[in-house]
Specification:
By secondary structure, the protein is of the alpha+beta class. The protein has eleven helices and 24 strands. The protein is globular.
């Protein structure tokens, strides 16, 4: 077995369900140290209903007296991990896609974009067309184009909610939770020591509490949490191998390409293993600096489809070597930088639909798209999604009822996606 095929048992159709990592953590101050979880906004309507979440720490309480506190969410963990692929140590594993703002001297890497390949800043650039085409390919089951330009969107998940509605689940998910904690509060006083009245002396006319020149008192604010004697902090990470095996390369005629599918799965598995085993950032936020508990070593388990579990070991250097080989075999896309296009942003912000009138000359039911021969000349490919409204006359209809070769349509679109199709 060579290094490129060493994990093939995991990506074949009868492979395991998942690779699960469990890692115990402790505050840098020690097991009894106070640390600060993430805080969350109040649930909508909480000001009117006290039974709703009032904001603060996310702590679940159970009838047996135990509790679980969310320290770092799935989304937060992903956002901490994905940018490592921009570091020199890993940058050769993925294409470096950047949107530039030359007038401001700014560059934004796709790896730092909030919504990955679906992010508005990335899409308001010449990357719009290749990314849109890649999402359309996702709708027909072909993951290769997106892997060529934005492979980490396959690893950490993406939803093209503004356009094609293509959605990919996270293959790699990670959370940090504390089990069995007690909650602290804190208070603080800021007392003015000066006796000078700045306003009366005309040193700072109009100075008042809004300017920070008055006493400030805070009592019983959230003050962190602390483990109880039976408490523990744990990072649980899961690589969904069953979900990874849904990735495929589909030819233009709809047939599966076995060799390219294996190359794609190896590549995405390699990136996932690198992200899974990479050294974790210990500093999560002010007052929350967590390090591995050396008394409880990190464990890897391969979970099989029948529920059985097997010990596994995947070292980070091993993951990097495999990912490098897999990236070369897959032939990753090239690095590319494009300018931000303000006209695309303005068009998206306006949200004004474009009106088209014409005759359907072809359709693709797998991607819910069709080609329209326009009455004013030329052709246009139109995509529909779950929000598109179909009408036959004045009656509601669906894609199959309205879209057929030869049908004459009135279409309203925004960013090439139909909002209304009328026959």
């Amino acid at each position: 077995m060579n290094d490129l095929t060493k994990f093939d048992a995991w990506i074949k159709d009868v492979g395991p369900a998942a690779l699960v990592v469990r890692e115990h953590l402790v505050p840098v101050e020690g097991e009894d140290g106070v640390f600060f979880p993430a805080t969350y906004a109040a649930q909508q309507g909480a000001d009117r209903d006290k039974d709703k979440f009032q904001g603060g720490y996310n702590i679940d309480l159970f009838p047996d007296g135990s509790n679980v506190c969310l320290i770092d969410s799935v989304g937060s963990q992903a956002n901490r991990t994905e940018p490592i692929f921009a570091l020199s140590e890993y940058s050769n594993l993925v294409p470096q896609i950047e949107v530039t703002f030359p007038e401001k001297g700014l560059r934004i890497n796709l790896l730092n974009a909030n919504h990955r390949a679906a992010d508005a800043i990335i899409r308001c650039s010449p990357f719009e067309k290749p990314l849109r085409n890649a999402f359309l390919e996702i709708l027909r089951g072909n993951s290769e184009p997106l892997a060529k330009i934005a492979p980490t969107s396959l690893v950490f998940g993406v939803w093209d909610s503004r356009d094609t509605s293509a959605k990919l689940p996270r293959l790699l998910s990670s959370t940090i939770r504390a089990h069995n904690i007690k909650v602290h509060t804190r208070s603080a006083n800021f007392l003015i020591q000066m006796t000078i009245d700045l306003a009366k002396l005309d040193i700072l006319p109009g100075a008042d509490s809004k300017d920070g020149f008055a006493n400030a008192i805070s009592s019983k604010a959230p003050g962190g949490v602390q483990l109880m004697p039976n408490g523990t902090i744990r990072r649980d990470a899961t690589l969904g191998l069953a979900a990874l095996r849904r990735l495929a390369v589909i030819e233009s005629d709809g047939t599966l390409s076995p060799d390219r599918t294996i190359a794609l799965r190896r590549y995405i598995l390699g990136l996932s293993l690198v992200a899974l085993t990479a050294p974790q950032e210990s500093y999560l936020r002010q007052g929350c600096n967590l390090v591995p508990d050396i008394e409880k070593p990190r464990s890897f388990k391969v979970v099989n489809l029948d529920g059985s579990r097997q010990d596994a070991i995947v070292l980070h250097e091993e993951a990097k070597s495999f990912a490098t080989l897999a990236a070369k075999a897959f032939v990753i896309g090239g690095n590319r930088a494009e300018r931000f296009d303000a006209t695309l942003a303005e068009k998206a912000a306006e949200g004004k639909p474009e009106k088209l009138k014409g005759e359907v000359v072809s359709l693709d039911a797998t991607t819910n798209s069709f080609k329209l021969k326009l009455a004013k000349g030329g052709e246009s490919v139109v995509t529909t999604n779950s929000t598109t409204k179909f009408l036959k006359g004045k009656d509601d209809a669906d894609f199959d009822t309205v879209i057929s070769v030869g049908a004459k349509l009135d279409v309203k679109i925004i960013a090439d996606v139909a909002i209304i199709v009328k026959k």
